[in-house]
Amino acid sequence: MKRFQLMRVCLGAVCLSMLAGTLNAADENETKLPTNLPELRETAVKILVEASFSDVPLLRANALEGMQAAPDRALPLATRLLNDPNPAVRYVAVVTAGMLKFDSLSTAIRPLLRDEHPSVQAAAIYALRAVGENIDLTPLAGLLERRDPGLRGNVAQLLGLLGDPSAVPMLNRAALLPMPRVSATDLAVVRIQIAEAMARLGDDDALDALRSGAFSQFDEVRVLAIVAMGEVKDRRMEVALERLADQPPVEIQVAAAGALARMGNTTKVQSVLDAARHVNPIVRGQAAVNFAYFSDDRSLVMLRNMLIDEEPIVRVSAAAAVLKRLSK
């Protein structure tokens, strides 16, 4: 994995309109799929547990992220994956422990303060502070200043999760630090990550960087900026996002529709429904993640169908969305 970033598995509310607790069948022949909400949830859990044992690090990491909606199920996964051979998976495990306040894992996390990968070290500092340990945050400042774009972006994310507004000046300085050997794309990505963290911490001036990023020449940067606007609920951009949700490329459409849904505007669900049928499994996975922001029957049925997609990354994304949505 290029960056140790958490997938944005931030999902929507359960579909309350299904009063009987059953799902409308999208296809008469799909009898093997779950037909009620408890069964759907357990199917999603099973997919994520199985994926956590995958030989593919990305699937292991995404499986744990997806399980965050069910802390009791996430704890054993996080416990095991703290010792994963892949640093990106360890990073996700440590961050999950912090986000879900798994204080029982403090002893297991402490050795990771000396992990060979700086992003894992930073995650360990975050997690220990998040679970109430008295730990010095000063090393995060040094890690934030290193010229590794992935590390800088991860540390910015962790500072945003900690929720301490006093970190804003530090983040602002980091955004201005040069990285002369880094590609223009990576530099732009890091600046979006820093801007999002600052916005999370209450710095409204950082919204300008996110708004500009939505119109970057780099599609990756555009997607990150649009998703971030949804995360921080930048309602001033709602009209612009509605336009973006109707204009290709499809990745931008899905990101914009999901950002709008996060703000309570679900009018662009059709863009996500169309993307769910896309030939590219990455696009289908993106659609699955964003379905979780919606609460209509059609998107829930589509998620159910995506649990048997031929591509593992789509199945894991759909399972994560289902679990978060039904946990609301």
Brief summary of the model shown:
The protein is mostly helical and 328 residues long. It has 18 helices and no strands.
Task: Please give the structural blueprint.
Layout: H1 37-51, H2 57-67, H3 71-81, H4 87-99, H5 106-109, H6 118-130, H7 138-144, H8 149-162, H9 168-176, H10 184-200, H11 207-213, H12 219-231, H13 238-244, H14 250-262, H15 269-275, H16 281-291, H17 297-306, H18 312-326
Helix pairs in contact: 1-2, 1-18, 2-3, 2-4, 2-18, 3-4, 4-6, 6-8, 8-10, 9-10, 10-11, 10-12, 11-12, 12-14, 13-14, 14-15, 14-16, 15-16, 16-18, 17-18
Overview features:
single chain, 328 residues, mainly alpha, Leucine-rich Repeat Variant, 18 helices, globular
Question: How many separate domains?
Answer: 1
Under the CATH scheme, the architecture is: Alpha Horseshoe
Query: Structural class, please?
Result: mainly alpha
H/E topology pattern: HHHHHHHHHHHHHHHHHH
Sheet-strand content, in percent, reads: under 5%
Descriptive notes:
With 328 residues, the protein is mainly α. It has one domain: Leucine-rich Repeat Variant, CATH 1.25.10. The protein is built from 18 helices and no strands. It has helices at residues 37-51, 57-67, 71-81, 87-99, 106-109, 118-130, 138-144, 149-162, 168-176, 184-200, 207-213, 219-231, 238-244, 250-262, 269-275, 281-291, 297-306, 312-326. Helix 14 packs across helix 15 (269-275), helix 14 (250-262) packs parallel to helix 16 and helix 15 (269-275) runs antiparallel to helix 16. The radius of gyration is 19 Å and the shape is globular. The model is unreliable at 1-31 (pLDDT under 50).
